[in-house]
Design brief:
The complex is a heterodimer of chains A (272) and B (292). By secondary structure, chain A is an alpha/beta fold. Helix content of chain A is 28%, strand content 23%. Chain A has a six-stranded mixed β-sheet, with helices on both faces. A four-stranded antiparallel β-sheet of chain A has the order 2-1-4-5, with helices on one face. By secondary structure, chain B is mostly helical. Chain B has two domains: 2-62, no CATH class; 80-284, MetI-like fold (Orthogonal Bundle), CATH 1.10.3720.10. Chain B has helices spanning 2-17, 26-40, 44-58, 70-82, 85-117, 119-133, 141-148, 152-176, 180-188, 193-230, 236-245, 249-277. The chains are: A alpha/beta (272), B mainly alpha (292). Chain A binds chain B through residues 89, 91, 109, 111, 114-115, 117, 119, 121, 123-127, 134-136, 160-163, 176, 180, and chain B through 179, 181-182, 184-191, 195, 199-200, 203-204, 206, 278-282, 285.
Chain lengths: 272, 292
């Protein structure tokens, strides 16, 4: 994906803290190695309708997400956000229309799509490392170790999940999602249960990891400020239809209270 | 016997009041004393009862026809130990108990897993099993004797039936209450059905299965006692019934004590298994235990 999405406006002026795809010099974080990147997959929804009984939750939805884009899907509860997410990862199938991840039509669970749930969903009887490598497979220990290092929990692999804080558990869940190098990472309001400080820490972590690895990210949230802080593009879902589709051309990393950001938040809120 | 036990029970308090306890290594000694007294505390009540009982018997308040003195029971223990009958009977009873547990437990576990994992199986089996479960299994002893005579099979069959239901119920319940979210996570993360069962479903159900096992162990001994007293030519139950014929109340009480100790041993073993198998559970980490 990398080149297709290269120019991120304003990142040259970005202060220290998070790494940047073009490897602008940072005293704190060295530029990411090329090997850290893996290919993101594009996601396409073609006239997708999903009904439960005779109640349509999504109505003839069209959405095109290029590889490597960070999209936030905003909407009220019951607006079809979570349904959209379950269709993309193959937990549910569309009533009509088609969903594509890369070139593959979604017809069941997609191995290249990973989902970060609202709650961490760690198996309490597996140690942290074993939770990260839950699918096992060859070389899973090394991969899980690397993923834990990535989320800043390198030394917690041998702990039981029950001794971790809420934010740490969610970071383990993130490591578990990253371990298989997914083309698409779906984030289903994963920060909702966290306190404000931990939440903004998680925002920075997600932003850094996404910039480093280059996967496609779809964030479901009802928090407009969060959407504007993280995403390249915000899609508002209202009653199963796209009510607004706007790109967020703000420099990264973003301060949440700039005038442009607030103006954008106002526009999005009006559409929700 | 009672005097050595009382001194053991009294020793922690004696060590605490001893002046040496305030020497430099006080924390280690007090920690030691605390751990010893914690280990002994559960035994305080039975030991107290034993002392009172011995006193009552020695003072002639209690007829040996009603209840023998603990010292007589100890003598009976020594006598039956020396002629080998005690160990022979205990091992026969334990063997029956374990074989019955293995068969009944395997059946209960298999049915619990099957019905818990696969809905159609629940539809077919569950209501039948619930009906059978509510029949007191000791009520079919006459039938069992007609089927198997008074051979080993009869006792093992009864134990197996008694043990199967608590294990079935708790396995089934444990599997049904496994966190749906975890199962969904495991599917999204690509676990094949076998791995899903071994890594998510079974460990999730394990606390409940172990509760079933502990409950089953109680039923196991109960069933065995009844089966052995009614029809047997060996085992602890036979030993006590035989002793009753000769008015040997000391041997009868010895049999009861043997059952109590075997039951306690079985329970301690399950607790040890729980501590190992549920090490991940916050309730088994560190000193945590009670809720208050």
């Amino acid at each position: 994906m990398s080149e297709a999405f290269a120019p991120r406006p304003g990142s040259a002026t970005a202060p220290a803290q998070s790494a940047d795809i073009r490897g602008t010099f940072r005293p704190a974080a060295p530029p990411p190695e090329p090997s850290l990147r893996w290919a993101g997959s594009p996601v396409r929804l073609d006239g997708v309708t999903k009904s439960f009984g005779d109640r349509p939750v999504l109505r003839r939805l069209n959405l095109d997400i290029p590889a490597g884009q960070f999209v936030a899907v905003v909407g009220r509860s019951g607006g079809g956000k979570t349904t959209l997410m379950r269709l993309v990862c193959g937990l549910d199938l569309a009533t009509s229309g088609e969903v594509f991840v890369g070139d593959t039509k979604v017809n069941g669970l997609m191995p290249q799509v990973r989902l970060l749930f609202q709650d961490p969903r760690l198996a309490p009887w597996q140690r942290v490392l074993a939770n990260v490598g839950i699918a096992r497979g060859p070389g899973w220990r090394e991969a899980a170790d690397a993923a834990l290092r990535d989320v800043g929990l390198a030394d917690r692999g041998r702990d039981w999940p029950s001794v971790l804080s809420g934010g740490q558990k969610q970071r383990v869940a993130l490591a578990r999602a990253l371990v298989s190098r997914p083309g698409v990472l779906l984030l289903d309001e994963p920060f909702g249960a966290l306190d404000a400080l931990t939440r903004s820490e998680m925002h920075r972590l997600i932003e850094r990891i996404w910039t480093e690895h280059g996967f496609t990210a779809v964030l479901i949230t009802h928090d407009v400020a969060e959407a504007v802080a993280l995403a390249d593009r915000v899609v508002v879902l209202r009653q199963g239809e796209v009510a607004l589709d706007v790109s967020v051309d703000l420099p990264r990393p973003r301060a949440s209270a700039t005038t442009e950001a607030l103006e954008l938040q106002r526009r999005i809120l009006a559409a929700v | 016997m009672s005097s050595t036990l009382t001194s053991a029970a009294a020793s922690p308090s004696a060590a605490e009041s001893h002046p040496q306890a305030r020497e430099p290594s006080v924390p280690r000694i007090t920690a030691y004393v605390r751990s010893v007294s914690r280990a002994l505390l559960p035994w305080a009540l039975p030991l107290g009862a034993l002392i009172a009982w011995q006193a009552a018997a020695s003072l002639g308040l209690l007829s040996t026809r009603v209840l023998p003195a603990p010292s007589d029971v100890a003598l009976a223990f020594w006598r039956t130990l020396k002629d080998g009958s005690l160990l022979a009977n205990i091992s026969v009873s334990t063997g029956r108990a374990l074989v019955g547990l293995a068969i009944g437990g395997a059946v209960g576990l298999a049915l619990g897993v099957l019905n818990g994992v696969w809905r159609p199986a629940e539809t077919i089996f569950d209501s039948t099993l619930q009906m059978l479960r509510n029949v007191p299994h000791l009520a079919i002893i006459p039938l069992v004797i007609l089927w198997f005579g008074i051979d080993e099979e009869a006792k093992i069959f009864l134990v197996a039936i008694g043990v199967a239901f608590p294990i079935y119920l708790n396995t089934f319940h444990g599997i049904r209450t496994v966190d749906r979210g975890l199962v969904e996570m495991a599917r999204v993360y690509g676990l094949p059905p076998g791995a899903l069962f071994l890594r998510i479903v079974l460990p999730g159900a394990l606390p409940s299965i172990l509760v079933g096992l502990r409950y089953a162990l109680g039923i196991m001994w109960l069933t065995l006692i009844v089966a052995e007293t009614i029809s047997s030519t060996s085992g602890i139950g036979y030993m006590t019934m035989n002793a009753r014929e000769f008015l040997q109340t000391d041997v009868v009480v010895l049999g009861v004590v043997a059952y109590a100790l075997l039951g306690k041993l079985a329970d301690s073993l399950t607790r040890a298994i729980e501590r190992r198998a549920l090490a991940w559970h916050p309730a088994y980490q560190g000193e945590a235990g009670g809720i208050a």
